[in-house]
Amino acid sequence: METIIYFYQYIIFFYSIVITLAYVSLAIIGYFNINHKKSIYTEIEDDLVNNYPEEAPGISVVTPAYNEDLIIIDSAHSLLNLQYPNFEVIIVNDGSTDNTLETLIEEFDLKIVPFPYIDKVRCQPVRNIYKSTNPIYSNLTIVDKENGGTKADAMNAGLNIAKYDYFINTDIDGLLDPNTLAKMIVPVLDSDVPVIAVGATLRMVNSCEVDNGRITRVRPPKRFIPAFQETEYLRSYLVGKMGWSTLNTIPNVSGGFGLFDTNVVIGAGGYDPLSQAEDMDMTLRMIAFMRDSKKKYRIRQIADTCCWTEGPSTLNLLYRQRTRWGRGLLQIFIVHRHFLFNPKYGRMGLFLLPYSLFFDFLAPILTTVGFFMIIFLFLNNQINFDTFWLLMLFVYLIGVSMSAVAITADLANKKLYKNYSEYGRLILFSLFEAVAYQPFNTIFYVIGYGQFLYNRDFEWKSMTRQGYIRNTDEDEDNDQA
Amino acid sequence: MSTFDYYFYYYSAIFSGYPLVIKVAIFIILILLSLIVISFFRFFYIRRKQILEEKRKRKINKRYREKLIDILYFSFQELNIVDLEDDNDLKEPKKGWQKRMLTYLILDIKADKSFEIDGGVFQNKNYYNLLSYTKLFDYWVNEISSRNTSKAIKALRMANEIGEGIRGSAFSRSVHHRNSYLRKLARMTFTRFDAHAPYKFLEKGFDSQFNKFDERRLHYTLIEVNKDHPIPLLSKWITSTTNENYCSFLIREMGFFRQEEGIPFLIELYRKEQSQQIQGQIMMTLGELKYEPLIDLIKEEFKFASLPLQTNMIIGLKKLNSKSCLPFMTEAYYNTQFSEIKIQIVELLKEFDQAGLQILTSLSKKSSSKFENNLFAYALNYPHI
Description:
Largest sheet of chain A: 10 strands, mixed
Number of helices of chain A: 15
Number of helices of chain B: 20
Helix content of chain A: 40-55%
Largest interface: A-B, 52 and 54 residues
Radius of gyration of chain A: 23 Å
Distance between the termini of chain B: 89 Å
Oligomer: heterodimer
Number of strands of chain A: 13
Strand content of chain B: under 5%
């Protein structure tokens, strides 16, 4: 037993060193990437795409909705108000049991049309396709389909009617920056190698002020869990993905928001309806498709915040989200195990997936085992407290330092919060993240792995919404009433 | 021995006695602490910089704005450099930040159309005299030669925004820079402003890393160049490049600048070219140039063409906008195996009103699948949805 504990301690120690070096390297690479992009992409580039319709490649914005009656109108208006000369909005009603469809029909004067639907990728049967009789909503299409149980199935239905070469995959609760589409398409155009996907920074909408589907005041979340998540997202996007983007090794373009090459996604077989992590699964299959076709590709990440999404505000909601991510991650490594260490898949097989296996998948397991081991050692008086605190400080500082780097990178890229003290608030929260947030995260991931192994059925559920601050006259009237 | 030396040796002695694991841990902790300290410094540095920028902007606005509006819109007379020098309210900015801020302010006022609504007329000569008097041209030309790539890129953008008055020689270093973004932007700016050999880079394939976004930027550069003197026949540079993106771009521009004299070259190129991207662009350009025999050319090739090429052929016919293509549409509809192309053919037919609707009606009678039924029902019953 002592030998096992002895070896385990060394493994954890070297594991922590490698992960720290990886994070520090990503932070440095990401820093240069953000600075470089900031110097070459400005409003002039966005205007070049926005002001000349004939030059703007068409983009389909596809978003599935399941029982989203409360927010569907705000979200649809937010999407329809995007500033881009050439886009369509496709909302897929995935067999909602509330009034999502009826609300849409009433708001947008929708009518069933005999749409020429092409089955390019598989999904549950489409019941009807609706278009608006009001010409100002001519770029809106609603697909009403049988419930497929997953977001992936609904996305596939949207893909089957998407008419443009690029599409945005976003959640219905995501509020997009009006200039998002130009920002996302510029890296696609500005590349001599085909760019098959582009990701951007997501952050929490929870305490932001929203007026008619537009963010009017960005604020860090007031509640604890979304505030921790805000920093977690900034770390993931501005340190992790901006760094990986330079090496063309982004493992996952977020399912919450991302731009994709329609033909590549269709060529790769569309989204997998059985996948619990359809975004990472899709990204990996797109890479595999390009490698199999012997075509060059790039996946890009931009530092700008393009999408605000409502983060889980209670432990229960966080549990639901993170167990799903845990199930998805384990499923990825089982379904795509043949990619691992396979030179045929280049960097993805030899570097990216092994990295993700050791540092994303195994981290919650090693942390949990380590926690129990510390208790065991403590009970047996085997902890040397002279050096114990040093090693704990080491682990603690990994998270704090990366948060500090990410928050500063966010400010350097664009000042979104009105006051600098609001950035300070995020920094303050990051000091407590290791003890007040990460333990739950770790446990939920491990539970997710367990759920997957016990093969329980999981379907996508509508999220219990806390809502954000809406600045509409209607709301004021309601408040007065 | 100083106090510093004493503690240095004291802690070094303690440190050297620790096991390797602890030594490594301390080393990593120091790295992480350094990152935190650097991030804090950076945070406060950015904060200070942003606040200072705002303050400077307000200062420049307060000092110059009213005067500039008057000179640029409401003076209604030419003010030469001597006149501007005599004006005590308009002092020449000395510091770099003042020149930067003043340039932004002048460009903001120039872009603001509300002054014209209020009865003002933009005084172009005053604008250039103002830029000369304030030495803003010189400032940005100097910045273009900066060793700092970001500064040079910013300066090139400003040169393009300002409009005129910068000679091609100002870019001599940037046009061969190893940073591809700076190099391409410099070459575009050179094409726009150089009076002696503006097409120097167009002749040589422009840049090995020419991409779709450069196409858009160069397109608008050529429009600006064409305002001063018509651009030459672009086909002569097509053969000197192997870059498909650049070749397609030149072919597209031939259509935009209506270079009909290049049509025989394009047809010859179409027959010998292997690249589908270039073939597709030729189809679209011939349509843009209203080349009626394009229909016969498409008739020959359509059946054997791939999906992207068929798409470009249909776009070519759409640009051609000639009723002569209508008889071919029925044939094309039955000859394509791609549902996407069938949709595009139906969309094209809808644009020909009555004549197109007749063909649509006859095609609909022979529709044999649910897809086709929906396609025609949608086109015929909901033409405006």
